[in-house]
Amino acid sequence: MAPAGIVYIDGVFYPPDQAKISVFDHGLLYGDGVFEGIRFYNRRVFKLDRHLERMYHSARLIGLEPPVAPDEFRRIILQTTARSGLSDGYLRPLFTRGPGDLGLDPRKAKRSSVVVICSTISLYGAKHETGLTAIVSTYRRTPPVSLNPNIKSLNYLNNILAKSEANARGADEAILLDLEGNVAEASADNIFVVKGRVVYTPPTTHTLVGITRETLLELCQGHYETRVEPFGLPFLLGADEVFITGTGGEVAPVVEVDGHRIGTGRPGPVTRDLKERYLHLVRSTGTPIPANGTGEVGRAGALPSEA
Ligand code: PMP
């Protein structure tokens, strides 16, 4: 069955099962491109401008000149969402380096491509209630001297290998340490530890600057003390609560790490409270999706089948 939603590629809208890009695109050949993961709830896009800012920053860091200006891209994203007909869902905008030759020199790719996938996402399911199990991956998070973690690039093999290791060991998630042995993040989520009423999270020197992480730190204000500081595995294993955060996974409790029970082995009160605050915020704020999803966007506003 074709996934729900709609896909925009370089000025044209496609049904998901007809959305295709060239096999010569360096995004496919080398992971040369950047992306975002954005969610919308109740016909409002959560933190759209912050995601756009991060995406253009990622593009700058890899020297990719986006073919659309931020304002136009914002309109494209909102139009794509409107056309999907979905009230709740997930957006995956991409800038790929574009089609080039079979060498990795980015100068050979003359025109980068713009893609916006609008579909649905469901991560962790019932585990949100019971809590996730995690392993500590044997793969270390790619160090910043090798790849700036602020680049949200199309190359996720470091994360995928860690996730596969979790799958092989029957766990839901993988926690990656940095080269110094400090806790970095989960395979596609930032990580938090709770001790008493203090909420800890590592600095972002080795991790993506997560937008959900930023939001959680704000939500703690006036309720919990927060400390952004490095910590190792023993600190995490001795925590009262552990949770991970991401646009897709939202706020997800972790109740077991490498077979060690965290706290009571059930999602704790601070995690549940912060998760409730987060879900309230995402469902009540954000950029409204325009009612009319048929307006002209870029060079073409019609699905190929409608044209
Ligand atoms: N770390 C990594 C490696 C990620 O890919 C993501 C996004 N899925 C996150 C953290 C969380 O970022 P955000 O809260 O902005 O979705």
Looking at CATH, the homologous superfamily of the largest domain is D-amino Acid Aminotransferase, subunit A, domain 2
Given the C-alpha coordinates, what overall shape results?
Answer: globular
Q: How much helical structure, as a percent, in the residues?
A: 25-40%
What CATH calls the topology of the largest domain is D-amino Acid Aminotransferase, Chain A, domain 2
Flag low-confidence runs.
Answer: 295-302
List the ligand species: 4'-deoxy-4'-aminopyridoxal-5'-phosphate
Assign the structural class, choosing from mainly alpha, mainly beta, alpha/beta, alpha+beta, or little secondary structure.
alpha+beta
Q: How much of the residues is beta strand, in percent? A: 25-35%
Whole-number radius of gyration? 20 Å
> H/E element string?
EEHEEEHHEEHEHEEEEHEHEEEHE
Please state the average pLDDT score.
Answer: 94
Please write the CATH class name of the largest domain: Alpha Beta
Terminus-to-terminus distance: 24 Å
What is the annotated CATH architecture of the largest domain?
Alpha-Beta Barrel
List the domain count as a whole number: 2
Major sheet size, sense and barrel closure:
9 strands, mixed
- Helical stretch count? 8
* Secondary structure: number of strands: 17
